[in-house]
Amino acid sequence: MKKKWWKESVVYQIYPRSFNDTSGNGLGDLYGVIEKLDYIKSLGVDVIWLCPIYQSPNDDNGYDISDYRKISDDFGGQAAFDVLLEQMHQKGLKLVMDLVANHSSDEHLWFQESKKSKDNPYRDYYIWKDGKNDGPPNNWGSFFSGSAWQFDETTDQYYLHYFTKKQPDLNWENPKVRKEIFDIIDFWFKKGVDGFRMDVISVISKPPGFPDTAYDSFQDTIMKDYANGPRIHEFLKEMNREVLSKYDIMTVGEGPGIDLENGPRYVDERSEELDMVFHFDHMFIDCGPGGKYDPIPFGLNQFKQVFTNWDNALKSHGWGSIFLGNHDFSRMVSRFGNDTTYHSESCKLLATLLLTLRGTVYIYQGDEIGMTNVAYPDISHHNDVETLNAWKEAEQKGQDMEQFFKIVQQQSRDNARTPVQWDTTKNAGFSDGKPWLTTNPNYTTINVASQEKDQNSILNYYRDMIAIRKANPTLVYGDYECVDRGHDSIYAYRRWDDDIEFLILHNLSDTSQTFEAAGIADDFQLMKSNLEKNTSENFKLDAWQTKILIKK
Ligand code: TEU
Q1: Would you say the CB of residue 46 lies under 6 angstroms from ligand 1?
Q2: Which of 328, 410, 414 to mutate to test the pocket of ligand 1 (most atoms within 8 A of CB)?
Q3: What is the pTM of this model?
Q4: Whether residue 386 lies in the annotated active site
Q5: How far apart are CA 276 and CA 255, in angstroms?
Q6: Residue whose CB lies within 8 A of the most ligand 1 atoms, among 98, 169, 199, 294, for a mutation test
Q7: What's the CA gap between 221 and 228, in Å, rounded?
Q8: End-to-end distance of the chain based on CA atoms, in angstroms?
Q9: Catalytic annotation on 272?
Q10: 264 in contact with ligand 1, CB cutoff 6 A
Q11: Rounded to whole angstroms, how far apart are CA atoms 284 and 254?
């Protein structure tokens, strides 16, 4: 296995709006990130991934970019960015930016020109079609409810938008568009940026002819119609050749519709496209046929299978990314752990899981202190466009809104976007002004300041676990095998190389469990556990206990 700095890295993801506000306007900013660089460094991470910070009308909080070369004034502009990058590099931290190239904002100059006339030089930067039978060109739906087509009166045509109508899809078939994007990437690499996370890169190549989708389930439409289009690998190879290959950087492509069958191809080192992808196989286990607003119970065995299958699929020629939460999903401990009785234990267990699997590890801001879902009292507190559009649609369909609100509380992306909880002062120390999104009231108990003082805090456990990973390349590169034989509550795996062997046991349940170690002799000793009191028997686990055992 080829060694690379980005394989050994632990990445810390920042959602800048919610991280730290130094101007008092209620929005996080880059000076806020600068102020916390020593804190971030103290975690032991190597890389910061910043969600979009470019100029944007913020219809989707920055995922709608109106100028790809301009840092938003809301975040402190170019001056703040230059200071940030310089200070990060001085401290030995690398910076990964977000590239949103499937779509731009409708306020981008390209789109403003494009919509003027059918013969405008920018017309083909986007996807324009005539309507059909007094309606849109086909029956495609948007990720954020409603049709994926918006009618524009000026030229009597529709444009495609997979996301909101203020996020028109770029036409990657047009070589000029590809050149523009490659130039933008190059622009940021020349400034010293160390990599890109590429937003919905899996859907940039559209199906020829734009046929109606034949599927009722939106998930099927994504898989069969939107994702992994016929030219995707050609586009990525071209991007690699034209720009990525010229720098020592890392790339991670994000993508709905990336699965075990098609995913490995994106990251196969022999074909020179991307370094890593984010797939959502483990993040959608609890989604029913109706998607995220149709939740079903989460199955641990399915969850384990996802990690096992992906490890297996990537071990020869690729590399994985390990994450359990980001700005698009509810909080990791509220989904996969127990955010009440076993809050601390389950947060530490999930930290151990993240940091002992093979793949580059991504930690989302606030997870290192165990931030939880927020449960706002009503919809007026919500901000996320996906949530609000789904709410409107449910109302229009006459759904039981009390019931729907319960699902919103559980599933809304706002759960992950509440301000980071720094201390017990007003607004959790996030801002002196009114935060753009209501702070989670549990900041009085869950916050950085109090965990700094507590040796056994979740925060200090993260620091320990990151240090353990750094000190043990076996946990980065070593082989992986799941050994729990389908246990309902235990996830157990071995990680090993020629020198060292670990056995890692997690009990993801509220009751004690015993690891049935058929074929595995107990010649291990305990190296790390999330509980202060440990039983003398290695294979016995208390509720939400995690153990890293090392072969004697
Ligand atoms: O997300 C893509 C994506 O797959 C999401 O739409 C996902 O299905 C949804 O959030 C699950 O609730 C990326 C960004 O991460 C997201 O924040 C943006 O809104 C989206 O692209 C559009 O740019």
Answers
A1: no
A2: 328
A3: 0.98
A4: no
A5: 11
A6: 199
A7: 12
A8: 26
A9: no
A10: no
A11: 14
Determine contact, residues 387/417, Cβ cutoff 8 Å. no
Give the torsion through C-alpha atoms of 320, 321, 324, 330, to 10 deg: -120
CA trace torsion 394, 167, 410, 408 (10° rounding): -30
Phi, psi (rounded to 5 degrees) for 283: -90, -15
Question: What is the model's pLDDT at position 535?
Answer: 76
> Side by side, which strands form the sheet with 128-129?
128-129, 157-160, 149-152
Q: Give pLDDT, residue 518.
A: 79
Question: What number does the ligand 1 atom closest to the CA of 329 have?
Answer: 12
> Of these residues, 106, 254, 275, 286, which one is catalytic?
254
Q: Comparing C-alpha atoms, which of 26, 66, 53 is closest to residue 383?
A: 26
Mean pLDDT of 218-231: 96
In the numeric block, the tokens 């955010």 are attached to: 339
Q: Which two tokens stand for residue 100?
A: 């949103």
60 ligand 1 Cβ < 6 A: yes
- The overall average pLDDT reported for the chain is 97
Q: What is the pLDDT of residue 334?
A: 97
Alpha carbon of 252 to ligand 1 centroid (Å): 15
Phi/psi of residue 168, each to 5°?
Answer: -65, 140
Instruction: Spell out the SS3 assignment of 337-359.
Output: CCCCCCHHHHHHHHHHHHHHCCC
| Tokens coding 159 | 């444009």
**CA 64 to ligand 1: nearest atom:** 23
For ligand 1, the distance from its centroid to the CA atom of residue 546, given in whole angstroms, is 32
Query: What is the position in ligand 1's atom list of the atom closest to the CA of 326?
Result: 15
Residue nearest to atom 6 of ligand 1 (CA): 143
**Segment 227-271, tens digit of pLDDT:** 999 999 999 999 999 999 999 999 999 999 999 999 999 999 999
